[in-house]
Write a structure and sequence with these properties.
Lysozyme, mainly alpha, about 240 residues, globular, Muramoyl-pentapeptide Carboxypeptidase, domain 1
């Protein structure tokens, strides 16, 4: 492994590991996509705008026009398009998780525990037009042993499940507040939920919190609506 590759992986590992609990995205898949999309952090989009995943559009009003290529009907076309510009790479990694969970077309990929299945589902849902995209990501994952990152988060999940199951009577340790908490809600209960799904606990139930709740519900086999009613609350607490 080259020094550049090692440095890149070390720089994104922490952020990639958080994606499983927050959004149900395997860290190996995130790392493989980031490496491919950003040319191991060396692309202009990555170095100048901290965009590791080639996500188009704008982030909080910030975007950059860049040259890229797409494949349509088996033919490659060179184009110029707008891409999201981030303040740092950590934000890019987090927004990648939000992007996959708020776009319903990727729903079948969220929570899959096999990196091959997950990246193929992401690719099939339209993440990239390159017909060899998922094969390239899988190759990166396997060449650099990134599946070991998945073992770290999946093993942690097993441990958490055992702890949760030991509550005894099956009732929530923290009583349900008696109302559905959803996008637009504010207050201490929102902060408690945010800490449970590991997003910034600012007491404001916004888009990122909703996405994290949906990812949690999917992993737990609950109805995925992004709202914290009694069933979701009792499972969390």
């Amino acid at each position: 492994m080259s020094t550049k590759t090692e440095k890149f992986l070390a720089g994104i590992k922490s952020g990639a590991l958080t994606l499983w609990d927050k959004f149900g995205i395997l860290p190996s898949v995130a790392a493989g996509q980031a490496a491919l999309e950003s040319a191991w952090g060396g692309s202009g989009l990555a170095t100048r705008y901290n965009n590791l995943f080639g996500i188009k559009g704008s982030y909080q009003g910030n975007s950059a026009m860049m040259n890229t290529w797409e494949v349509y009907g088996g033919k490659r076309y060179d184009i110029t398009d707008g891409f999201r510009a981030y303040p740092d790479q950590a934000t890019s990694i987090l927004d990648y998780g939000v992007f996959l969970t708020v776009n319903k077309r990727y729903a079948k990929a969220i929570g899959l525990k096999d990196y091959k299945s997950q990246i193929m589902a992401i690719h099939n849902a339209g993440y990239a037009t390159d017909p060899n995209y998922s094969t390239k990501v899988i190759s990166i994952i396997e060449k650099y042993g990134l599946a070991s990152w998945d073992k770290e988060v999946l093993q942690e999940k097993k441990t958490e499940t055992k702890v949760t199951a030991s509550k005894g009577d099956g009732k929530a340790i923290v009583p349900y507040p008696g109302k559905v908490i959803k996008k637009g809600s504010t207050g201490k209960d929102v902060e408690r939920i945010q800490r449970a799904v590991k997003v910034t606990a600012d007491g404001k139930f916004g888009t990122k919190t909703e996405a994290a709740v949906k990812a949690y519900q999917k992993r737990q086999g609950l109805t995925v609506d992004g709202k914290v009613g009694p069933k979701t609350w009792n499972r969390m607490f």
